[in-house]
Amino acid sequence: MADKFKPFVSPEVHMKEFTLKSIILGCIFGIIFGAATVYLALKAGLTVSASIPIAVIAITLGRKFFKTTILENNIIQTTGSAGESIAAGVVFTLPGFLFLTDGGGEEFFNYMTILILAIFGGILGTLMMIPLRKSLIVKEHETLPYPEGTACGEVLIAGEKGGDFAKTAFLGLGFAAVYAVFQKIFHVVAEAPYFVTQQVNKYFPSARVGGEITPEYMGVGYIIGPRIAGVLVAGGVLSWLVLIPLLASLLPADMIATQLVKLGYLANLQTEGGGAGWDPALHTFKDYPKAVYLAYVRQIGAGAVAAGGFITLIKTIPTIISSFKGSIGSLKKDEQDTTSGKGAVPRTERDLNIKIVLFGSIALILLMAFLPQLPGDSIVNKLLVGVLVVIFGAFFVTVSSRIVGLIGSSNNPISGMTIATLMGTCLVFISVGWSGKAYEPMALVVGGMICIAAANAGGTSQDLKSGYIVGATPMYQQISLFIGAIVSSIVIGLTVKFLDKPTAAMIAKGVTKHAIGSEFYPAPQGTLMATLDKGILSYNLDWQFVLVGVFLAITMELCGIKALSFAVGAYLPLSTTLPIFIGGAIRGIVDRKRKKDNAQLSAEEEELGKGNLFATGLVAGGAVSGVIIAILAGFDGSAKALEAINMEGTLTNVLGHGGYFLLGTLAFAGMGTYLYRIAIKK
After folding, report:
1. Residues paired with residue 196 on neighbouring β-strands, in sequence order
2. Residue 359 CB partners (closer than 8 Å, separation 6+)
3. Which residue ranges traverse the bilayer (predicted)?
4. What are the start-end ranges of the H helices in 501-542?
5. How does strand 284-285 pair with strand 278-279?
6. Whole-angstrom Cα distance, residue 97 to residue 95?
7. Are 224 and 617 spatial neighbours (Cβ–Cβ below 8 Å)?
């Protein structure tokens, strides 16, 4: 069936494709969406695919200003999408360096180490996909749909035919940017309205409901839909309206403070602060819900996320085995076809030479062994780490590509793969006598690189599918992905380090050393990886709380609920999952109206619908604005200027806290109403 497929641009046609302007534009998009993904993943622990918005914007800007061809537009979106994939892998793992035993990994949370691991992981993901393209993308064109890749291909073809759908995405970008200015610069719109019951409340102490009412959260909720958004917020409801009030009513303040001392949030019982406002004189907290969350609920959530990821991996084991066998079988067949010789290779079938995979893998192992920026006290240690990276990488890149081909990148169980890699690495270390805190950073390097590689392999597969549909030259796409990985990594590392620097507002709330890991940027997956790493290698884990989370995830799975989504919701603050749920609820209302009107849409039409395009604009615009404002707040001069135009104090004096929060809630409701009106338009 695949042999009969005819791409939009036939192999005989030679048009502009791998040009300087396409690479530069792709790198710019990779930088923008990479930085936005870092911001979103640190705050919410979630990402959304950037390929479709990049394709939409590339078509519009390319056609109007740069006279690009469809193949150049494909190179733009291929190069740009690498930034989003690598950023997700970096943020999901490398912040874990900050949370290892006794701060033993903090020295490796520096720009050069992050840059090296991001580049190596990104290159590994693309490298391992070179021999898999023919077997997975071409031979199984009819059986592996690669949803995002197919949608991107349709976008590129529709744009070439004159389709005009970019206006909606740009409208979302502009709306989010204006909203962010009023919210994060002028502070006319409250950032996080909340309501909390007092600890002395007889019936329901320390229950907290709130929401970070930002455009990006509403956009994410609309994109993931009501089902997943509902499961996410259900986890938050359990943590913040069940577990925290229960524990707050049962445990005395001194016991909670002692647990915070054990975890390192509080120096000792005689020192005030500790992230939740401990008062040693009055033996109480300014923020009881946060104190209970940090002391107990966060560890329960970490256990639930670990179990949820592992359950997801176990459920996909049959797919993993069949995927690996099928891919290896297809590779053997490709070798036979190659040796038989069939004349000149058509343009649309030219891949980079397979020798690049072999020599590239050897080079990665040697570089990891000799680069001083990576953890390890001997060449032998580092060589083992490099070998484990390549072995796990070859396996999970294959698995990742096959899975995203079936169910899409958004459902790729990367967390489960990373957890399995981390646990497997730790067990290998223990088997050779390497245990203790000195080896924790080395294990995290393996987990981090596999996470980046698997994420990038999923994105690479979707890009190669788009290229196959439009008739691109695979070799040029593969080179573009290498370039995109390197350029994006440069900015991803800078963004991570900059966001980790506490601003004046954060310092005022007690965040003095690292913003990552605080309420501002919780980095849930990074914290989880460190928790597992410490628990296995250094036996440094409160298993009683972690196991509660494990069996909570098992309970959800037995009830037919996706445990990982629920667990992430239980781990994150409710203020993160509640606005995401509202976005999902709007999507549910739109879907119900369509069903009532008997409007049937294909998967591709749904991806390119006005609601989805506006929502991706909200995500991109909100996240990029957040990064820009965070950077401005990091410089003293601009921070003072931002403080001078901050209207929160004035509005609070006039309206009171309740009135100010109500004003913000009405603004968020207005944005939701506008999203609904856009989404129901034909």
Report:
1. 208
2. none
3. 20-42, 48-66, 78-99, 111-130, 228-251, 352-371, 383-408, 414-434, 479-499, 545-564, 570-590, 611-635, 655-676
4. 504-508, 524-537
5. antiparallel
6. 5
7. no
